[in-house]
TrEMBL record:
Cofactor: how bound: Binds 1 Mg(2+) ion per subunit.
The protein, known as: Shikimate kinase
Highest taxon above the source species: Bacteria
Residues annotated as signal peptide: none
Organism annotation: Reichenbachiella ulvae
């Protein structure tokens, strides 16, 4: 099967991009990249450290750079992006031009539950007072970017495989 060389997962923090992405990459027999992990390797800092020391603008620059580097690799791969990656610096256009984008549209209540249990590793969430209200606002703010993905799924691997098989 000739799948697109690059497959990008986009969606909210806590939507399951990293966890689901590993399973999908294995199923497709391709290399998996977690964009946040790549940023940490390239910068030598954790995501919370980058936010604390350099700020979100610098983090977004690292993110765009790391995304560009992974995109230029010649090998077929699946990339789990950070929740904000599609929303900055033309990244969504880059991903749509370079391959296939899939929006993991996980129910917001499930996302809120997941990120509430993992606030320390999520700088944007860690700074939130009312997580439900602020995550809902963030979702509404980012939805326009996520909807530019070529396909939307609620993390149904068979549905995504059918979509990819049809390409």
């Amino acid at each position: 099967m000739a799948y697109p060389k690059k497959i990008y997962l986009v969606g909210m923090p806590g939507s399951g991009k990293s966890t689901f992405g590993k399973k999908l990459a294995e199923r497709l027999g391709r290399q998996f990249f977690d964009l946040d992990e790549q940023i940490e390797k390239m910068s030598g800092m954790t995501i919370p450290e980058i936010f604390a020391d350099a700020g979100e603008d610098q983090f977004r620059m690292f993110e765009t750079y790391a995304l560009g580097m992974i995109t230029q690799l010649n090998e077929p791969s699946l990339i789990a992006t950070g929740g904000g990656a599609p929303c900055f610096n033309g990244n969504m256009d880059l991903m749509n031009e370079a391959g296939c984008t899939i929006f993991l549209d996980t129910p917001l209540d499930e996302i809120i539950n997941r990120v509430s249990n993992d606030r320390a590793t999520r700088p944007l969430v860690n700074d939130m007072g009312d997580v439900k209200a602020e995550m809902t606002a963030l979702y509404n703010e980012r939805l326009t970017f996520y909807q530019q993905a070529k396909f939307t799924s609620d993390s149904d691997i068979e549905e995504i495989m059918s979509y990819l098989d049809a390409l």
